[in-house]
Amino acid sequence: MKKVGWIFEWRTYLATALAVISFSNFMAVLFGQTIPGVVVDFFRVAGEYVVLGAVFVFAMAWLLKAKPHNRPKAYHVVAFDVYGKQVVVDGIRTEFKTHDVAWSYMKQYKAAYPLHNFALVSDMASGPDKPTILRYI
Q: Which of 9, 78, 93, 106 is deepest in the core (most CB within 10 A)?
């Protein structure tokens, strides 16, 4: 005989509760751990490949753009008067092996001879007929 007063049986409640708890636990694990873990791992690896690819692209662009520099073997200092005509000033050194030394001497000559202008010249690029002026003061 059945007890009167109980509308539902406890077995139904228990089965329903277990099903709901199992399903909600499954959904919590699925959407709380599994899917975010897979997505985070995917984007972490994808991000690494994007960064590595960008480094590779920039390295290749730099290697293709970089050219060996043909530096001049000699530099010359040329003096000009106030009218822009090339002149020879006695007592100054005009041939140098390095750019920095020639530039330093040019600055010293400009201070010593204020009415003259000086050009740092290299004849490498355009030949002896038309020298290239690298700096002018």
A: 106
